[in-house]
Design brief:
Length: 124
């Protein structure tokens, strides 16, 4: 099993995955609601949009914009069951366990925090 740092390093080598970045409105939203609220949103999105055994619109359930977690899902290959299978070998036809969901949320939050911190460091 790879670590979060190993996963982020692998994703950074993908031209497509590394093309995703948070926009100014995403930073403003994070500043407004805080990282804990973003984490709660990530938990909710993963539980409802990615964890079920059957997802009727799989491959199209994660918007490409509109929330920092959506952007992170695409950047981290956690946007649909197909990408989860390709990047992390997660079986497409089984419900995600609580542990799997937690690992996904931790990866998404690590990516969001890395993006956020790089923006803060640039402004200093």
């Amino acid at each position: 099993m790879q670590t979060i740092d190993e996963a982020l390093e692998k994703l950074s080598k993908s031209k497509f995955r590394s093309s995703f970045h948070l926009k100014e409105k995403d930073f403003e939203y994070i500043n407004k609601v805080g990282m804990e609220k973003i984490r709660q949103h990530a938990k909710d999105f993963i539980k409802t949009r990615l964890a079920p055994k059957y997802i009727p619109n799989d491959g199209k359930q994660t918007p490409m914009k509109g929330h920092p977690v959506f952007i992170a899902q695409h950047a981290c290959g956690c946007c649909c069951r197909g990408c989860l299978n390709k990047w992390y070998r997660v079986n497409k036809s089984t419900e995600l366990t609580e542990t799997q969901q937690e690992k996904i949320v931790n990866l998404l939050m690590a990516w969001i925090e890395k993006e956020y911190n790089s923006k803060i460091n640039i402004q200093k």
